[in-house]
Design brief:
mainly alpha; Growth Hormone, Chain: A; 80% helix; 0% strand; globular
C-alpha cells in the first residue's frame, strides 16, 4: 500500500473537519436572517460544534487504538457527512444546532484517528516529518481557507452550500479509504473497555468546554458558570482516580511521564489560546471595522494559508539543523512580532500596508511551530498508543483554543464597553469603530502573550537532547 495515498485521504478528511470549524463564521449573519435566530441562539451554531468536538476527542483517539483506527475513521466520516447534509437541510435553528453538534462528534472521531493513522503508516524520521508537514499546513491553513470558501459560497450560492460541499467530499473519502487505508489497532489491548473512564473524561471535557463558552458570555464568576466548571473538575478528578484503579484504562496515565508528550501538549495548549483569538478578532476587524464583505474577508486570509505552507516547508529543513525545540521557539517569536504589528491598526488602516505584514509573520511563525511541536508530541510513542497521543494533542488544541477565545473575548468586550462609556450616551459611528479597535488591541496583546508564554514553556519543559532524538528519528521515548 502506497503510504502517500493514505496520507492524501486522511488529510482530505482532516481538511473537512478544520474547514467546518471556520467556514460557518462568515455565513452567520445570513443564517441568522434566514432562520430568524436570536443572537443567543446564533452563537450555538459555532459552540455546538466546539462542544462536541472538544468533548469527544480523547475518546475518539483511544477508540481507534482499541477497536481499529480504520473502523473508527470510517464511522466518523459517515457521522460527519450525514450531519453536514442535515445542517444544509435545517428548516429552523434547533435542527441546525443539533446537527452541528453531531458534526462535532463526527469530527472528534475523524481527527485524532487520522493523525494516528499517519503515525502508524510513516516511520520515525524524514518520512514522518514530511507527512506531518502536509498535515500541519492543512490543519492550520484550512481555517483560513474556510473563511474564503464560506465567503464564496454564501455570496454566490446560499449558506446551506457551506455544508453541502462536505457531502460529495465525505462520500468519496469514505469510498477510497475503505479500500486503501490499512487497519491498525493496539494489539495488546484487552477486550474490555473502560466505560466509567470514558463517561467521566467525556463528560468532564464537555462540561469544561461548555463552562468556558458560557464564561465568555456570562462572566467567570456567574452563578451559571461556576457550577458547570465545578462539575467539570469533579468529573476530571474522578477520571484520574478511575484510570489509576482500572486494569485496562482508557488513558494510560504513564504516558505523561514522557517529557516530550507532556511538554508538547502544554505548549500547544498555550499557543492555541492565541491562534484561535487571532483568527476570530482579525476576521471581526476586517468585517465590522473596515466593512469587508464575507468574500472579501475570506480573500484577506489567503496569504495566511500561503505563509503557513511556507513555514511548514521551512521547518522540515530547519529541524535537523536547529532542533525540534528551537524551531518552534523561533516561529513563535515571529508570531509575537506579527501580533504586535496589529496594534498599529485603526479604523482607517489599509490591508496591504497595515494588515498583510502581520498576517504573514504570524502565518510563517505558526507554520514553523506546528510541525516540530506535532513531532515532539507524537515521536517516541509506541504505535499501540498512537490514538491516545493524537487524542491528547488534539484535545490540548481544542480546550486551549476555547479557553483563550473565551478569555480574550471577555477582555475585548469589557475594553470596548469602557471606551463607549466615556463617549457618552450616543456615540458616533467613528467612536463605535474606535471602541471596537481598542478592544481588539487588548485581544491582540493577549494573543502575543500566549505565543510568548508558549515559547517559554517549550524551552523550560523540553531539553535540547529531546530535539536531537526526534531529529535523528530515534523512537525511544524520553522520560523524566
Amino acid at each position: 500500500m502506497n503510504p502517500w495515498v493514505v496520507l492524501v485521504l486522511v488529510c482530505l478528511a482532516q481538511f473537512m473537519v478544520i474547514l467546518d470549524a471556520t467556514v460557518v463564521n462568515v455565513a452567520l449573519p445570513t443564517i441568522q436572517h434566514d432562520l430568524q435566530m436570536s443572537d443567543a441562539s446564533l452563537q450555538w451554531v459555532v459552540n455546538a460544534y466546539t462542544l462536541m468536538f472538544g468533548g469527544f476527542l480523547l475518546l475518539g483517539g483511544r477508540a481507534g487504538d482499541l477497536f481499529g483506527r480504520k473502523r473508527v475513521f470510517l464511522t466518523g466520516l459517515v457521522v460527519f457527512t450525514t450531519a453536514s447534509l442535515l445542517c444544509a437541510l435545517a428548516p429552523e435553528s434547533s435542527w441546525l444546532i443539533i446537527a452541528r453538534g453531531l458534526q462535532g462528534f463526527g469530527a472528534a472521531l475523524v481527527s485524532p484517528v487520522a493523525l494516528s493513522i499517519i503515525m502508524a503508516t510513516f516511520r520515525e524520521g524524514a518520512e514522518r516529518t514530511k507527512a506531518l508537514g502536509l498535515w500541519t499546513a492543512i490543519a492550520v491553513g484550512g481555517g483560513a481557507i474556510g473563511l474564503l470558501l464560506g465567503g464564496i459560497l454564501v455570496d454566490v450560492l446560499s449558506w446551506p452550500w457551506i455544508f453541502l460541499v462536505n457531502v460529495p467530499v465525505g462520500a468519496a473519502t469514505f469510498f477510497f479509504s475503505r479500500r486503501l487505508v490499512p487497519e491498525s489497532r493496539d494489539e495488546l489491548a484487552r477486550s474490555g473497555f473502560d466505560v466509567a473512564g470514558a463517561v467521566a473524561v467525556t463528560g468532564g471535557l464537555i462540561a469544561l468546554v461548555y463552562g468556558i463558552v458560557r464564561a465568555g458570555e456570562s462572566g467567570w464568576g456567574s452563578g451559571e458558570v461556576l457550577p458547570i466548571l465545578a462539575l467539570s473538575v469533579i468529573l476530571l478528578v474522578g477520571f484520574v482516580v478511575i484510570e489509576l484503579r482500572t486494569a485496562e484504562p482508557l488513558v494510560r496515565l504513564s504516558i505523561f511521564s514522557i517529557r516530550t508528550v507532556r511538554g508538547a501538549n502544554i505548549g500547544m495548549f498555550i499557543v492555541s489560546m492565541g491562534l484561535y483569538g487571532m483568527f476570530f478578532f482579525n476576521t471581526l476587524f476586517v468585517q465590522r471595522v473596515l466593512g469587508y464583505s464575507a468574500l472579501e474577508a475570506g480573500l484577506a486570509f489567503i496569504p495566511f494559508t500561503a505563509g503557513v505552507i511556507a513555514g511548514s516547508a521551512a521547518s522540515q529543513w530547519l529541524i535537523p539543523r536547529l532542533g525540534a525545540r528551537e524551531v518552534p521557539v523561533v516561529g513563535l517569536g515571529l508570531a509575537v512580532v506579527g501580533m504586535l504589528l496589529f496594534l498599529r491598526l485603526t479604523p482607517d488602516s489599509t490591508y496591504l500596508s497595515d494588515i498583510l505584514p502581520g498576517i504573514m509573520l504570524v502565518a510563517i511563525g505558526l507554520g514553523l511551530t506546528f510541525v516540530p511541536v506535532t513531532l515532539i508530541a507524537t515521536s517516541g510513542i509506541p504505535v499501540d498508543d498512537a490514538g491516545l497521543a493524537s487524542g491528547l494533542f488534539n484535545t490540548s488544541q481544542q480546550i486551549g483554543g476555547a479557553l483563550g477565545l473565551a478569555l480574550l473575548s471577555s477582555f475585548a468586550a469589557s475594553k470596548t464597553a469602557e471606551v463607549l462609556a466615556t463617549a457618552g450616551s450616543d456615540p458616533t459611528t467613528a467612536e463605535q469603530a474606535q471602541a471596537l479597535v481598542d478592544g481588539f488591541h487588548l485581544a491582540w496583546v493577549g494573543c502575543a502573550v500566549a505565543f510568548a508564554v508558549g515559547a517559554v514553556a517549550l524551552l523550560v519543559l523540553l531539553r535540547r537532547g529531546d530535539a536531537l532524538v526526534i531529529a535523528d528519528g530515534d523512537p525511544s521515548p524520553v522520560v523524566l
